């Protein structure tokens, strides 16, 4: 994997990741306007990544090809890894960021609780159980992959993330509320509100 910040003062980065299973290119600008382009070969996943960029207020471009003839697991997980790496590079030393954020986001009957910390310490608490059905897109999407995506993302980004399902019945609604909740929390956490690194250690 190669990850590079932009040469100017923008909090932005590009990442390229190639394995025997996937080939991924990602661009992210934390100070963007929510402009999103996604192409992973998995329509429902593209829709969720679009929620992440749009509601996070990030400019986000994701291009991924993977071994979808096997299943979607490698592509979803590797996009999470690459996106987390890009986020970490774009965030830099996190000087002045709000750091902590939490949101409760509804989507019809579904309600998701999200709390996160740009701590530099990767941790995922994920308490979301689905009714059981796959998302009936083409190809069908297994909602269990969402946990793998978030775990890959927080590990690469160095984020502590707690996601809890408060209530919900419709799998699509639950997943989408999760992405919107994380997006809004990331947006709040990276907001600049001071000048120093918000940690008694002096680093995050």
TrEMBL record:
This is Imidazoleglycerol-phosphate dehydratase. The lineage of its organism: unclassified sequences, metagenomes, ecological metagenomes. Keywords: Amino-acid biosynthesis, Histidine biosynthesis, Lyase. Pfam families: IGPD. InterPro entries: IGPD_sf (IPR038494), ImidazoleglycerolP_deHydtase (IPR000807), ImidazoleglycerP_deHydtase_CS (IPR020565), Ribosomal_Su5_D2-typ_SF (IPR020568). GO terms for molecular function: imidazoleglycerol-phosphate dehydratase activity. Pathway: Amino-acid biosynthesis; L-histidine biosynthesis; L-histidine from 5-phospho-alpha-D-ribose 1-diphosphate: step 6/9. GO terms for biological process: L-histidine biosynthetic process.
